[in-house]
Write a structure and sequence with these properties.
Two copies of one chain form a homodimer. In chain A, α7 links the parallel β7 and β8. The first copy, chain A, is α/β, with parallel strands linked by helices. The longest helix of chain A is centred in the last third of the chain and has 23 residues. In chain A, the strands form three sheets. A seven-stranded mixed sheet of chain A has the order 4-10-9-8-7-5-6, with helices on both faces. Chain A has a four-stranded mixed sheet with strand order 1-2-3-13. In chain A, strands 11-12-15-14 form a four-stranded antiparallel sheet. The first copy, chain A, is built from 13 helices and 15 strands. The interface between A and B is large, with 105 and 105 residues.
Chain lengths: ~425, ~425
């Protein structure tokens, strides 16, 4: 019997649902938190649970303009009732969206292709980077997460023990303990060594692939221009740069629409996902005509649902809302308060916690008494935020940082709330 | 300036849109037909073009219960306004859908996982088949199409010249010229040879992967039980069988909900896509607990948009409509008239055309005077249907068959229309 949403507020009904879930979904399905979130509705930056409790969402970047934004809902629903086909027929929606999207990029990024997921987009970008006639070697960061297709998983060392290192992959570890002004050049030297190693191998050097927030490496967004030197090394060596914007894009950093613009990178290919259509499956790549058309000339590629009119309607509404609600400026202003507030309580707390980030993307990294990164402290903090009614995530090596990455309409009042809770969480850690 | 939909009825506006499209979309984007379809709205089995003309849709299987079915539209829109999150939170929708979906399968298929595209689902199934500790060799049909991720493309020889044959792949060619009763056993012997070859190699034999309609090999659905012998060979050899149901599933063949049930196959993994949510990006796999949980235990797999509440709402509405509108029976009854009508006019036409199929899936194969498969005749026919206001597709080796695969609510009157047009198309070919 189907429970009503509010029935799931009762623990025996939740237990029953958990058992039904385990029976029909594969074991790969996991839930966040010791006590799972049971959402029944959401609006803006708030999620309501079955038991009526209200959660502040400081984690989900997919609903980038806010959960259930009425303009996005209206756009996708209006289109769903009229027409939903595919790109082998001629419609204007995908062209209009591509034009608006490309207007947010700088030259020479002038072609776009649309997929449904970020994994598909990474897979496609790597197929372009490694197309016949090009070198095959790829440089990635040592804790990178890029997706779940077989090829995307091969560039995802954050899978841990189950990751199988392909011989054409080189990983580079971001230099954590170097001061701000030298960090970019130090990373460039590490990248250069990996490139040299590939160039001495049978594979050659094809591409440097980096998440533009280095999120799973711990969130590295300062100072501006941080990844410029590494990126220039890659291009000087004859390779291309693939910017993974799945987390850093769509105004996240508060200073630029795209992470690569903040990081001083001029990519040859850009991969987008998550935030693109506020929750409908839309992802894609943008790149140079040379790479994108070169790939298109060599063979067939058709993504049945990719760029369909309903998905494009939602994606276009997201771009329109970002513009009309001035969400880039908003992320900059409110993000500055978030970053300042978190740093201030971290300093005052006496906890071994370090804050990094820019705009509405922050990481709080935990260390133990010996100065080693501390996954247990981070997990305690994650659940403490949950108990205080705030959703955050984890990132960094071995999940040692709290990841704060809310929908963009996060308000000053929301900042005050999360900073106050952070003060309590860190006080409790300092007392441990 | 954004044109109104009806403006695209004017050829200079279409030309302008085509130029804008070429400028922003990669060269991989191609359009069907000499004269592209310019849809502005659709309902049921009909598409209206910008110039007001009406097309009968006998091609698109994605809108399986009919374009813009009001129940599916309503379900997805209601959910979009309330909540759209992901599977790391506990909601009932995905569980309820998985239960309804699994009820259409026979034992031992008891676990499900959801992705956004068929390509992702194929990629995931192959990752399961080839997980560490299992043999790596895969047998596929020689004209197979399975998708566009790097791994899915590696099992897609229908890509033609751009297909790169991996050493762990063996292809088997379906025996075209053998009579009905011997065809299944003949194919099984060919499959057995490929398995033996893999077992002698360093790769071993992991899986037989087949589209359950063999659509891109020309549509082979008769007699019932056709693929049973090959499937049993694979399992007797210690391998698994992966059934690709992206085209054959969802009542398409008119006799069974799934193609493998018609073909006499007991798969270990089933891959679904296209028709699952009437156009929203939903795909997935169903499989044995051993394979699906084995994979889930070995490592992480999380698909951000996969199984989200909005997609699940649409997918559940599709299952409900299929049941409430008796679309399996409908596909059987109307499909029998379609198959009979096409065969009758093909015989009477004097054209070198052969009809195959079952239910609402038919192929009309063209040959030249020497009896060779004739792609030019097929392409002429494709455009002749288009001029007559009917959308059909192409399939088979070198696109030598017309593919008829309409939304399931195709009516008797629709059958009369396509049979009448087929009579004219074949008459014109016979006169050539």
């Amino acid at each position: 019997m189907t429970p009503l949403p509010e029935d799931l507020g009762r623990s025996e009904m939740r237990e029953d649902l958990l058992q039904r879930r385990q029976k029909v979904l594969g074991r790969a399905y996991r839930l966040f938190y010791e006590s799972p979130v049971v959402p029944v509705r959401a609006l803006g930056v708030e999620i309501i649970e079955a038991d009526g409790s209200r959660l502040l969402d400081a984690y989900n970047n997919v609903p980038v303009v806010g959960h259930c934004h009425p303009r996005v809902v209206e756009a996708q629903c209006r289109q769903a009732a009229i027409l939903n086909t595919h790109t082998r027929y001629l419609t204007e929606d995908i062209v209009r969206y591509a034009e608006k999207l490309l207007a947010t990029f700088d030259e020479p990024l002038e072609r776009s292709m649309f997929t449904c997921t970020g994994s598909e987009a990474i897979d496609l970008a790597l197929r372009m980077a490694r197309m016949p006639g090009r070198p095959q070697g790829i440089v990635i960061s040592s804790h990178a997460y890029h997706g779940v297709t077989a090829l995307a998983a091969s560039v995802t060392p954050s899978l841990g023990a189950s990751w199988q290192r392909e011989p054409w992959i080189r990983t580079v570890t971001f230099p954590r303990e170097i001061n701000d002004e030298d960090r970019g050049e130090a990373f460039a030297r590490i990248v250069r060594e990996a490139i040299d190693d590939l160039q001495r191998s049978e594979f050659g050097f094809s591409a440097l692939l980096l998440d533009m927030a280095l999120a799973s490496d711990g969130v590295w967004l300062e100072p501006e221009g941080l990844l410029g030197p590494a990126s220039r090394e890659a291009q000087a060596a004859g390779g291309i740069v693939i910017a993974d914007e799945v987390q850093a894009g769509f105004c996240r950093t508060g200073t630029h629409f795209w992470g690569h613009q903040r990081q001083g990178v001029t990519p040859d290919l850009v991969v987008m996902g998550k935030s693109m259509a506020n929750g409908l499956p839309v992802a894609g790549i943008v790149g140079t005509a040379e790479l994108v058309d070169g790939f298109g000339s060599q063979g067939r590629y058709f993504n049945t649902y990719g760029g369909n009119p309903v998905c494009m309607a939602a994606a276009e509404a997201v771009l329109d809302v970002i513009k009309d609600e001035c969400l880039l400026d908003h992320a900059g202003l409110v993000g500055a308060e978030l970053q300042g507030g978190l740093r201030s309580v971290a300093r005052a707390s006496g906890a071994r916690a370090r804050v990094r980030g820019s705009g509405l993307f922050a990481a709080i990294e935990f260390a133990d008494a010996k100065g080693e990164l501390d996954p247990k402290a981070c997990l305690r903090a994650l659940n403490a935020y949950r108990r205080a009614g705030i959703l955050v995530g984890q990132c960094g090596p071995d999940n040692t940082s709290i990841k704060i990455r809310p929908p963009l309409p996060f308000s000053r009042r929301n900042v005050e709330e999360i900073v106050a809770v952070t003060r309590d969480v860190l006080a409790s850690e300092a007392a441990d």
